Amino acid sequence: MTLVGLYALTLTGFIIFSGYTGQVLLCHGTLMAFGGYSAAILSVKDPVAREVAVGYGLPPIVGMVVGVLLAIAFTYVIGKIILRLRSWYLALATIAIAVIAESVLDGWVEVTGGTTGVIGIPPFSLGGLVFDSVESFYILAWVVALGGWVFALHLVNSRPGRAFGAISRDEVAASTLGIDVTKYKVQAFMLCGAYAAVSGGLYVHFMGSASPDAFNLLTSFKILMAAILGGLGTIYSVFLSAPLMKFLPELLALIARSVPFVPIDIKPDIKPIIFGLLFIIVPMYFAGGITGIVTTIRRKLPKFMPTRSKRGY
């Protein structure tokens, strides 16, 4: 459940950007990598652990702050360029960013450790408080996740949040009303990057290692799929999307193993097929995700409920 809390944090930022401003994002794993690798490289003490000549051994909070600042700077610069694009053009641009980032993480061995990544990462600590047990990290993850969610809840109900919604509905109309569309999209992207960096930093401290596989393009697709299944239209869907991101791959693997009349050597290939079908079917027929289905049922339920007459019989 600790990972569910970390996923809830990163999904909160994702929904702010993709759900409330209506932008397509497929490089969220890259944003998490800023926090993850900054925390890993700056906090690891043993230089052998990351196959380079220098071990920094800085306090974990320093690595976290550096990662967040790098993610914010990156999203600001890149956002100014790519957020002028729309729809699937923006999606292709973010996929390109994810592919480039994955190549850098794999190839820049002197800094990232290559495909091996960074190992020997110490537990997260803040002052004299060390989160070196599963229980303590569970509390940390959920405190940070809930704090981020409460902030996001207030944000989406504020003036910038209303501007995000206007941009999502119609960018041209929002611009006509005097809303600086590019400015608000870049701000939402920066906030998304900050959430992702914090989540990525906490993730590597919890796992004790950082590798390119944890922040690749597939991770970005998993985040997008979980957000769509839970519902992109509301910040409340985070509490559905986060468990889905954790347990959906395991459920799909179980379904794949249970499919009859399929050779055993082919069954591992069924999981990505099911994942792809969900990726197609859910946006087409259940655009609001699980949250949208529940909302629709709640709206229609009173029509089928018996009601009393005004006279009470």
Keywords for this entry:
313 residues; mainly alpha; ABC transporter involved in vitamin B12 uptake, BtuC; two-stranded antiparallel sheet; 13 helices; 4 strands; 69% helix; 3% strand
Q: How would you explain this protein's 3D organization?
A:
The strands form two sheets. This protein has a two-stranded antiparallel sheet. Helix 2 packs antiparallel against helix 3, helix 10 packs parallel to helix 13 and helix 11 packs across helix 12. The protein has one domain: ABC transporter involved in vitamin B12 uptake, BtuC (Orthogonal Bundle), CATH 1.10.3470. The N and C termini lie far apart (50 Å). By secondary structure, it is mostly helical. It is built from 13 helices and four strands. Strand 2 and strand 3 form a beta hairpin.
Describe the SSE topology.
Elements (H helix, E strand, L loop, with lengths): L1 H18 L8 H16 L16 H23 L4 H21 L1 H4 L5 E2 L4 E3 L2 E3 L2 H23 L2 H11 L1 H6 L4 H27 L1 E2 L6 H14 L7 H21 L11 H16 L3 H16 L9
Antiparallel strand pairs: 1-4, 2-3
